[in-house]
Every structure is written in C-alpha cells, then in structure tokens.
C-alpha cells in the first residue's frame, strides 16, 4: 500500500516519468506537457520525492540535465500498479474549469448561480471571475454573449446556429477524433476511479450532446446512404457528420430550431449534395420522429460540401469545370513550391491528384466560412516548419481565388501533402555520396559505414579513405558530397567529425550537415530541376497531342436515335460505341451505375452527359446522340427534357492528363454557348472543328504553363 496521498497533478508527473525510458526530462518539458508553469512543477517535487522514497523508489536529479526514475523494469511495473490504486485529490486546471463552465452554460436554459460553480470547482470567487473572463473570450469566437447578473446568475445569449457551432467546437476541444471514433464504435469504457468528478462530469455532458443510441442509429443511416449512392466519406468527415447530426437531433428534440437565409438555401438546393442530404434527412425524420426543416438540410449540405466526399466506384470519368480549374490551381501552387524548394514536384501525379482533391473541399470550406479544425497544426509547425513556410508562400493563387488570407489550420493540411511529396522526392532522388575517413583501422571504418547507411536511407557510403592520404580533387571527381571522419580534418571540403560509435549527437550533426549541404546546392540544382522538368513536360505534351488525335479521329455522331426513356438511351449509347457483346455488357453496366449517382443534364439546352470508365474500353471515345423524340423526366413539380446526349468513354486505367482533355469537352457544356449550339445542330465536320479549337486552346495553355515554369521564352 502506498504512503502519503498524491494530488492528481503529482500523480500525472510521476506517470510521465514512468513513460520515459532511461532518458532525463527537464522540469520545463514536464511543465509544457502538463500545460502548467515550471514553478508549479517545482512546488510539487518535494512531495513527489517523499512519496517515491516512502515507497522505495529512487529519483535521479541532475542539474542542467533533468529528472529520471532510477528503477528497473520490474520496479516500474510495481510503481504503475501503485499509481493505479492511488486515490487522488483533484486539482483542477484553469482549462478544465473553463470547459466545465462552458458545457454547463451551453446546456442550461436557466441562469446558473455563481455559488454552484465555486462550490463544485472548489474555486474562490476571484478565481472564478478570471475563469469567466476566459470563457467570454472563448464564446466571442461564436458571437455568444456571456451575461453576469448579480442575484440572478450567469447565462449566455446567442442564436441556435451559434450555440451548435460552439457545442461542436467544445466537443472537439475536449475529445480528439480517436476518442470520438471510439464512442461511435461503441468502445466507450467507464472512466477509471482515478478520474476526477469534474472530468467525468464534463465528459458526461459532452456525451449527452452526442447520445450513444442516437449515434448508433445515425451511423446505420449514413452507411445506408453510402451504399445507396455508392459514396464514401473520409474518416474525419464521417466523424464530423455524425457529431453534427447527433447534436442536431438532440437540439430539435428540445425544440431548438435552426434557420438559414433564403438566398443561401436556394444556392445550396442546386448542389448534388443537397439531394443526398434530403434523402438522409427523410431517413432521420422517420427514425427519430422529428420534423427536419429545409434549413437543417441546408446545414447538412454544407457539411457534405465541405467534406471529402468521393465516389467509391471507378472515379468519375470526366473532371468538371471546377475540378479542371482546381488542377490548374494545384499546378500553380506546386510550381511555386518547386521554386521555393529547388525540387521538381510537378512530376508527382500523386501530389497533383491529392492536392486537387484537397483544394476542392478546402475552397468550399473557405467560401462557406466553415471553421477548419486541424488537431495536428502545432505538431506540423514544430516538425515541418520549413515545409509549412514553403506552403504558406506557395498558396498565393489560392488566396487570390478566395479573396483573403488562408487560415493556418488549412495551410497545415496543405503542408502535409508537400511534406509527403518532399519525403518521397528525397527517397527517390536525393541521395548523398559520402566518404568515411577513420583513424582506427578498416574494421572500425566498415562498422561506422554500416551504421550510417542503416540510420540514413539517403546516404550512400561511396568509399572508405585514409585520413593521411585525403585527395580533395579525387573526392570531387567521384562526386562525393561529404566526408565523415572520426577525427577533426583541416581540409577545404565538406566534412564533419563523429564518434566511431555514432552517438545520438553525431546523428544530429550528420542531419544538420546534409541540410546545410542541401541548401548550398539548392541554386545549382534549381537549374537541373528546370532542365529535368523540361524533358518531363515534353513527354506530357506528347501525351496531350496523341490523346487529342485519338479523340478527333474516333468521334461519332448519330442522328434520329429512337429511345423511349433514359435507360433505353443508355442502351443505345453502349451499342453504338462498342464492337463486341463483352464490351457492350460492361459499358452498359458502368453507364447505368454512373446514372444511379444522379443525372447530369443541362436543363436549358436539353443536353445530357453520359460518361463512364470501362475495362473493355481501350481508347478515349467521344460521341453525340441526337434523339428523334424528346425524353421527358418527371422531377416532382417540374419536367426535364432530353433530346441530345454527349457521350464520353475512357479506359479504367488511364493517364490523368488524358482525362483532362475529356474534361475540356464536359466543362465546355457549361461555359461555351458555341459548343452547345454545334452539339445540338452542327454537322459532323462542324463538331470536329469546334472540338479541335477547344482542345487546341487547352493544349497551348498547358505549353504556356510549362514555359513559364521553366522560365523560357519564345522568340
């Protein structure tokens, strides 16, 4: 049995010490981890030492180095067991008190007396007054007013939209996505007895906001929608949507309604996400016996629009106008980052695709003024500070598009994409040639070389050389970047000296040397990047030109096509554009599957877009079908008419650059009246001529981007 009772903070300090394996930790680092001052930690140390001594444990203290438990593995296990049994007297941090106060105020419909908080939190009125000042600052972010009335109590004022906004932020402030996923997956365990009443109480309040039974039903309904619409939400968006809906259902049940501006709602109603949201709302309404208003559906739509919603089947064949512009935006940002880093990142299709996908949702969030949470921001800024700064400088095109500054949370997400691309670039291209110079003989040299290559994947030990006979000219001829020596060298060549055993500080020294060398070489390599990039761009231009030729030569126009309905039209399209039964069956299946996700119809012009990707299609295929009679689709209160179809088919495995060209045609249906007219009425040769002009304009615009990137000019 342990002797002396610990406070919760003293217990936290000891627990932290048990987690650090044979490495000292400073008081300052402990303070940072526990979010308190160093002085607070120092005040606790006398009591902690007494407790450890009383229980036969030794604490090692080294001035200027730090604290460390001097215990064996068996003793550490015994110590942890003791801590688990330890009954603590809780000391609440200011943050804990403030979150508890906020949760109480958000859930209460009546004013709360000051005495309630002072007695429950064991805090003086002065302390609580300071806490309330901080609470007001937190609430200010959501335009919620904190009202303090002597004799009456404390309460808050704001709109339902602002209350929900604050509740969602409170949930995310107090629980990370991993904890929320555990709750959603029904893995919530009861709090340990060592947890404080306040922690359990705050957590219980939050769990009231996201009731587990409600969550279970919502998850089933979202899974149902995903299967029906063949969609997939990213994990973070999945968690966010469940939290949003659980909170909305709870508030609706309590009679709290949300309203949306009519114009904003009308703008949302034309989005495909609104249709999905409406279906989801109808399921929720039936399951929970609540009336879900258009305003609520609007907010669900905003959530989906700001989420990473993606097709689960073969990705949509064509890139919409938005996505085409997004790719160009992503390319501009990547060009900027390439110039900043001196590394050609444009060759990474993964970076281009990932950044394009990210920018789509990012722009939606920025335009709709949605709050962007990034729990990794501090870690990104700390571990990838250079990449973060590169990202910050590179996103000027995005700032111009949204007419404003990009919040750091969003820059952090963009930095993750660049960090991954740069790491991949280094692994694939940036290898440093190293020579090992050792005074202790060939055996020691080999051992050191082996250790270095094991620790640094970007180092190749090119040779082991004699310290006495170092030839700098020979090193340059061999392309050696760095000499690593076990003694200090007086030579005019990049070199560092390390311990033959390669200690931790030596590894840091090598990393710094490589970074410095990389910076020195940046300007020289920039020219190499441009030359290499030019060759890659020539290859890309070749892909564009071959694809354009393919699309023009294989174009088909069919007139007076007889089709009774959309399914019949799809059957005809599959028939006209395939040469075998196997091809026909696959294309028909893919076109019908794509149509289930929603029709793409230009109502003003009666043109329908039919598109898919098929394993049975070998080349890009473009065609136009003109119907003999109109097809009328019933759309609730109005009818939609189709008399023309633009058909776009492509292989499943196809270069994204080839798909961009198909996108030029699909996006021209939206922004080019001449193209629409020629599709509707033009002869075969007219359509060919118009397609050629559209594709040529895009082709030349890409050449211009490549020339700008490499800073070449045409004379």
UniProtKB/TrEMBL annotation:
Keyword Hydrolase: no
A single BP term in Gene Ontology: regulation of DNA-templated transcription
Family matches, as Pfam families: HTH_11 (PF08279), PRD (PF00874), PTS_EIIA_2 (PF00359), PTS_IIB (PF02302)
Domain of life: Bacteria
Keyword Transcription regulation: yes
Domain PTS EIIA type-2 as annotated: residue spans: 550-694
Coiled-coil stretches noted in the UniProt entry, renumbered to this chain: none
Domain (PRD) ranges: 209-314, 321-428
Residue intervals of the PTS EIIB type-2 domain: 432-522
Keywords: Repeat, Transcription, Transcription regulation, Transferase
Gene Ontology molecular function terms on file: protein-N(PI)-phosphohistidine-sugar phosphotransferase activity
Stated name of the protein: Transcription antiterminator BglG
């Amino acid at each position: 049995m342990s002797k002396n009772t610990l406070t919760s903070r003293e217990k936290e300090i000891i627990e932290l010490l048990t987690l650090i394996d044979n490495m000292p930790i400073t008081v300052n680092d402990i303070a940072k981890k526990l979010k308190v001052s160093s002085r607070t930690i120092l005040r606790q140390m006398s009591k902690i030492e007494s407790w450890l001594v009383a229980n036969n444990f030794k604490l090692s203290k080294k001035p200027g180095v730090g604290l460390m438990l001097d215990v064996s593995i068996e003793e550490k296990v015994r110590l942890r067991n003791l801590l688990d049994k330890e009954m603590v007297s809780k000391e609440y941090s200011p943050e804990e008190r403030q979150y508890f106060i906020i949760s109480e105020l958000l859930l209460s419909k009546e004013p709360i007396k000051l005495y309630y908080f002072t007695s429950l939190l064991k805090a003086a009125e002065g302390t609580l007054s300071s806490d309330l000042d901080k609470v007001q600052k937190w609430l200010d972010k959501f335009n919620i007013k904190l009202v303090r009335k002597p004799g009456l109590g404390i309460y808050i004022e704001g709109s339902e939209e602002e209350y929900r906004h604050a509740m969602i932020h409170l949930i995310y402030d107090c629980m990370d996505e991993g904890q929320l996923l555990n709750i959603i997956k029904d893995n919530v365990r009861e709090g340990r007895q060592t947890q404080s009443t306040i922690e359990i109480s705050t957590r219980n309040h939050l769990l009231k906001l996201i009731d587990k039974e409600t969550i279970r039903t919502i998850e089933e309904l979202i899974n149902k929608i995903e299967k029906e619409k063949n969609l997939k939400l990213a994990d973070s968006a999945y968690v966010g949507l469940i939290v949003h809906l659980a909170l909305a259902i709870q508030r609706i049940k309590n009679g709290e309604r949300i309203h949306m501006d009519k114009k904003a709602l009308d703008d949302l109603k034309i989005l495909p996400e609104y249709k999905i949201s409406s279906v989801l709302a109808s399921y929720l309404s039936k399951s929970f016996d609540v009336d879900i208003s258009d305003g609520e559906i609007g907010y669900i739509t905003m959530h989906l629009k700001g989420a990473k919603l993606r097709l689960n089947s073969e990705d949509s064949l064509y890139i919409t106008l938005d996505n085409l512009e997004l790719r160009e935006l992503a390319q501009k940002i990547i060009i900027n980052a390439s110039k900043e880093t001196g590394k050609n990142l444009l060759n990474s299709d993964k970076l281009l695709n990932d950044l394009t996908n990210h920018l789509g949702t990012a722009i939606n969030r920025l335009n709709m003024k949605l709050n962007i949470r990034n729990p990794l921001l501090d870690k990104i800024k700390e571990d990838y500070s250079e990449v973060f700064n590169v990202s910050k400088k590179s996103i000027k095109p995005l700032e111009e598009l949204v007419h404003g500054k990009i919040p750091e949370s969003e820059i952090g997400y963009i930095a993750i994409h660049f960090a991954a691309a740069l790491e991949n670039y280094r692994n694939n291209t940036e290898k440093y040639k190293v020579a090992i110079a050792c005074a202790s003989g060939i055996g020691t040299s080999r051992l050191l070389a082996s250790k270095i290559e094991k620790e640094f994947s970007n180092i190749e030990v090119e040779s082991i050389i004699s310290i006495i006979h170092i030839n700098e000219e020979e090193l340059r001829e061999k392309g050696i970047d760095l000499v690593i020596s076990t003694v200090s060298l007086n030579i005019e060549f990049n070199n560092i000296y390390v311990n033959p055993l390669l200690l931790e500080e030596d590894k840091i020294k090598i990393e710094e040397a490589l970074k410095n060398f990389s910076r020195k070489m940046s300007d020289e390599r920039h020219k190499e990047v441009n030359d290499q990039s030019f060759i890659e761009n020539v290859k890309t231009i070749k892909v564009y030109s071959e694809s354009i030729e393919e699309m023009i030569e294989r174009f088909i126009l069919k007139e007076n096509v007889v089709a009774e309905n959309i399914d019949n039209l799809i059957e005809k399209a599959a028939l006209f554009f395939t040469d075998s039964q196997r091809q026909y069956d696959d294309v028909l299946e893919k076109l019908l599957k794509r149509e289930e996700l929603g029709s793409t119809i230009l109502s003003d012009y009666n043109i329908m877009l039919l598109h898919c990707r098929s394993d049975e299609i070998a080349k890009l295929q473009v065609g136009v079908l003109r119907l003999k009679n109109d097809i009328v689709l019933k759309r609730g209160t109005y009818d939609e008419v189709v008399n023309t179809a633009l058909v776009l088919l492509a292989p499943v495995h196809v270069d994204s650059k080839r798909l961009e060209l198909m996108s030029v045609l699909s996006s021209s249906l939206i922004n080019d009246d001449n193209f629409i007219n020629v599709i509707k009425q033009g002869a075969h040769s007219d359509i060919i001529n118009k397609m050629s002009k559209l594709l040529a304009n895009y082709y030349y615009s890409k050449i211009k981007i490549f020339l700008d990137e490499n800073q070449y000019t045409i004379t």
